Amino acid sequence: MSIMLPSAKRKHDGDAQPGIKLGKMFTLRLPLVHAPLEIPEIVQALVVFVVGVSAIAYLQDIFGLSFSVALAVVCVHEAIEIFNGMFGEPVICGWITPAIPLITTWILKYESIPVRVQALVTLQILLGIFFIVFGLTGIANKLVTWVPSSIKAGILIGAGISAITGKYGFMAVEDGGAGIFKYPVSWTVGILIALYLLYSTGFKKIKESKDNGLIRLLSVAGFVPALFVAYIVGMLIGEIPTPVIDLSQGIFFNPIPGLREGFHTFSAFAYGFPPMEVILSAIPTAFIVYIISFGNIVLATELNTEAGEVRTDENVDVNPDRSNILTGFRNIVQGLFAPIVVMSGPLWTAMQVTTLERYKQGKDSMYSLFGGVISFDMAKAIATFTLPLVALINPILPLGMSLTLMIQAFACFNIGFSLTTNNTQRGVAGATGAIMSITEPHIGLFIGIVIYLVVEYGFVRKKDQETETVEN
To answer: Which residues cross the membrane (predicted)?
Structure first.
């Protein structure tokens, strides 16, 4: 169902959605005025907003932030994502989820909270610069080609190992663990249901054979149903407290006091210029995060191009350079004023795929892709500002954080090993990943490159490498 003003209607089939041109690359589209409100996307966002809000737990746990400051930071993150669609990028953006284990491990090596803040600020600003510079210069496409598959696989495998062995996985509670040993029953229930819904071949067959509303909802919601089941189980057995909803604070959250406090304790202006050792360590870490995230820009381009071939009535401009620039801008702004561990990524794959599937059903199902993207991002941001909704899910946030990382670990292994084509590459990837999980990312990356040069590349002709791939 689409709700829009007459100004949001295209004059002819094949036209681009109306908007205000801002140079060659950007077009401003305002909700209702230039982009319809899509009710299904709004409803969907009110369910899955819990995923974004779970970033509060990272901020409280790693940096000791108060709830109001952490929620203010997340509100900025969610609000700034709206501009992605409004400025011409037809993509639902999200976290750089595969990089979260590496980022958290890297930050936690610093014992001082001020240094951790400086490290996060430096990392996010550098990442934003990489996105913009690599996007404008065209280095991005070449970079991903230059990085060997075994090294890319090793980066992902290392992230997965870091998640499983780290604080939010299988670390003992007495050592600071906040995973399975802190929530043994609810954690186990949640992760098993989540893995079944997301990766089980059995559930995939059910989706293919049965087309009904419940199955579609479970497919779209990802790990959210698993999280809510774990929530209920946790409350019943006493692992998780019951929610407390205090309406005396109002319905909508005012982020200004939290941002004001955060400006002095959690921003680029809080603790001055970071130490040189932090900067030198952040550069390769930001590079690794960029390598991980760039694949999402490529994927978003492919998904939107495919949808455009089906929906010839709307001309959707697909531009990877614009995606790089907008993602870089969001990271720099957040890094300066409200840094966040999960970073600002170019794509939320599950939600983009779901939105495109409805978009491909025709104009009556979704008038414009921009309407679907902007409606989803707006509703998600509004839900984040709604205190009763946030209070309802607040007790589950620490468990949600742990489950997110465990699911991502599985995804990292899944994708990482799929990038390799022979046993030699798998060996290089495994060694690189293992080293990266126990040392600093740049050291692991350097050693991985050395192993690659010695084992996989050294004086071997391309034809010989192809032969080895076939034989293995």
So the answer is: 42-59, 90-108, 120-141, 153-173, 185-202, 214-237, 278-299, 332-349, 369-392, 399-419, 431-455
Over residues 21-46, the pLDDT tens digits come to 998 889 999 999 999 999 989 988 88
Instruction: Give the DSSP H or E segment for 7.
Output: none
In a domain, 259, yes or no: yes
Residue 288 belongs to a domain: yes
Domain total of the chain: 1
64: left (phi over 0), alpha (psi -120 to 50) or beta: left
Is position 149 within any domain? yes
Whether 119 and 112 have beta carbons less than 8 Å apart is answered as no
What angle, 0 to 180 degrees and rounded to 10, lies between the N-to-C axes of helices 201-209 and 184-199?
50
Indicate the pTM of the whole model: 0.84
Cα distances (angstroms) measured from residue 338 to each of 125, 330, 333, 342: 11, 11, 8, 12
Check pLDDT > 90 for residue 266.
yes
> 442 lies in a domain?
no
User: Are β-strands 20-22 and 26-28 bridged in parallel, bridged antiparallel, or unpaired?
Assistant: antiparallel
Q: At 292, is the pLDDT very low, low, confident or very high (cuts 50, 70, 90)?
A: confident
Helix axes 39-53, 55-63, angle to 10 degrees: 20
* Closest C-alpha among 10, 17, 7 to residue 374: 17
C-alpha–C-alpha distance, residues 100 and 202, integer Å: 29
Instruction: List the domain range (segments joined by +) for residue 101.
Output: 37-179+246-396
